[in-house]
């Protein structure tokens, strides 16, 4: 009943490439499962190419249109070239969160290394694309316009710090939500088992059980919401790269 | 939840919290997990990105485009059909109006023609009748005159005979004629 146990990473197939540990772990297994499940929805689900879609095709189309609208709304027409990336990110995070809610599974997004890598990928893309498209004008991002020159150094410092903290806040938000949610669920579930084994106290065991049910619903919401938040923040940051300057 | 599957559940039931904390750092922060996680994340995420951008998204975009095209085409066709129907209705109206006007003129023409014919016939008949009437009247007048002439001679004969019978001698023709003429007037 150790609530941390669910985040343990164990190799399934130990593998070392060039002296680097590249073992196929339970985390890697669930990454593969996530990719397969999401691809099944998006590729097999839309395979009929029906004019009047069935349920799965409808779900795939709705996801597509939802993300397309989100990207278009935040990034404009230019932002649509990042649509495949944002969509992939959203679906990967969403499926990781949702699959992680199934008991006995592993939650890929509960690993800070995973979320931080994704955040670094986003910020790296923002910086690279910003410099590629605008050159050094991209640095105008850190210079707010219409400010008194005396205040400028101070404000630029704040902008730089806020920019640098983006990957941290982006990754920690997702990671902490998943970690905390799963620990809470596990602890509540543990209460049920402990109370059932505690003689007369077993009569109050339904209380934490009800709590677990409620929390599961809440975690479902969090899983969707955090995936959406991750995607929309990615859009917002990418928009900075497309249209720098305030 | 699932570590190496052989003792996942067993460990879960026997430990009463705390025992897991002793061994090693908090798993999400364990640097030993870094490289396998990142390598497999890069592999799976990269594959996933390729699948989405090359296969799934074009496929869905194609479906949506096809559907949008089909809907706009259908609407366009419906509009064309409606315009066609309106044209047909207008043509029908026009044909009906034409036919009505034609029928009306035809009826009027026929009526006028028939009326003229009837008038001509009537006039012809009237002429014939008038001529016959005149002829009859002339004949009657002639017959009357003839009859009157006969009456004259009969009256003369009768007067002569009466005179001869009364006087015993033949009557004077001239005197008789004068007498008859005097009575007649």
| Outline type of chain B | rod-shaped
Q: Per the principal axes of the C-alpha atoms, what is the gross shape of chain A?
A: globular
Q: How many DSSP E strands of chain A?
A: 4
Biggest sheet of chain B: strands, sense, closure?
Answer: none
Strand content of chain B: under 5%
Q: Using DSSP, what is the number of strands of chain B? A: 0
Distance between the termini of chain A: 51 Å
Number of helices of chain A: 6
Q: Termini distance of chain B?
A: 165 Å
> What percent of residues of chain A adopt helix (DSSP H or I)?
55-70%
Radius of gyration of chain B: 69 Å
Tell me the number of structural domains of chain A. 1
Backbone structural class of chain A:
mainly alpha
Q: How many helical stretches of chain B?
A: 4
- Which chains have the largest interface? A-B, 63 and 51 residues
SSE string of chain B: HHHH
* Low-confidence regions of chain B: 1-22
Q: Average pLDDT of chain B, to the nearest integer?
A: 83
Oligomer: heterodimer
Q: How many domains in all of chain B?
A: 1
The main sheet of chain A orders its strands as: 1-4
Brief overview, please?
The complex is a heterodimer of chains A (about 250) and B (about 180). Chain A is mostly helical.
Topology:
The complex is a heterodimer of chains A (246) and B (185).
Chain A: E1 11-13, E2 16-17, E3 20-21, E4 24-25, H1 26-44, H2 55-79, H3 83-100, H4 112-134, H5 152-196, H6 206-242
Antiparallel strand pairs in A: 1-4, 2-3
Helix pairs in contact in A: 1-3, 2-3, 2-6, 3-6, 4-5, 4-6, 5-6
Chain B: H1 8-14, H2 19-22, H3 34-167, H4 173-184
């Amino acid at each position: 009943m150790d609530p941390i146990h669910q985040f343990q990473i164990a190799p399934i197939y130990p593998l070392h490439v060039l002296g680097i540990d590249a073992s196929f772990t339970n985390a890697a297994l669930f990454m593969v499962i996530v990719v397969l499940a999401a691809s099944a929805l998006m590729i097999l689900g839309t395979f009929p190419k029906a004019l009047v879609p069935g349920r799965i095709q409808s779900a795939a189309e709705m996801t597509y249109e939802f993300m397309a609208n989100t990207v278009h709304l935040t990034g404009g027409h230019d932002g649509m070239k990042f649509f495949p990336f944002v969509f992939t990110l959203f679906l990967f995070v969403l499926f990781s969160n949702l699959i992680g809610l199934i008991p006995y599974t592993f939650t890929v997004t509960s690993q800070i290394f995973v979320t931080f890598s994704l955040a670094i990928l986003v910020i790296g893309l923002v910086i690279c694309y910003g410099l590629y498209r605008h050159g050094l004008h991209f640095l105008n991002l850190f210079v707010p316009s219409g400010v008194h020159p005396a205040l400028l150094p101070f404000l630029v410092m704040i902008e730089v710090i806020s920019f640098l903290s983006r990957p941290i806040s982006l990754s920690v938000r997702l990671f902490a939500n998943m970690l905390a949610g799963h620990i809470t669920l596990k602890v509540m579930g543990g209460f049920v088992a402990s109370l059932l084994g505690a003689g007369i106290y077993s009569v109050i065991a339904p209380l934490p059980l009800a709590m677990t049910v409620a929390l599961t619903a809440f975690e479902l919401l969090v899983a969707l919401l955090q995936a959406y938040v991750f995607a929309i923040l990615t859009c917002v940051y990418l928009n900075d790269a497309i249209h720098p300057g305030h | 939840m699932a570590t190496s599957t052989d003792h996942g559940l067993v460990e879960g039931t026997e430990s009463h919290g705390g025992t897991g904390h002793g061994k090693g750092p908090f798993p999400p922060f364990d640097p030993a997990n870094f490289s396998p996680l990142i390598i497999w994340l890069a592999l799976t995420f990269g594959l996933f990105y390729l699948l989405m951008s090359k296969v799934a998204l074009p496929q869905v975009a194609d479906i949506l485009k096809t559907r949008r095209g089909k809907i706009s085409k259908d609407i366009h066709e419906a509009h064309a059909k409606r315009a066609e129907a309106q044209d047909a209705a207008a043509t029908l109206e026009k044909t009906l109006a034409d036919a009505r006007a034609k029928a009306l003129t035809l009826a009027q023409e026929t009526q006028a023609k028939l009326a003229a014919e009837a008038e001509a016939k009537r006039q012809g008949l009237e002429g014939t009748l008038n001529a016959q009437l005149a002829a009859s009247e002339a004949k009657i007048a002639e017959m009357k005159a003839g009859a009157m002439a006969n009456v004259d001679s009969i009256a003369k004969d009768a007067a002569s005979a009466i005179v001869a019978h009364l006087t015993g001698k033949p009557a004077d023709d001239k005197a008789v004629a004068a007498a008859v003429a005097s009575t007649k007037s």
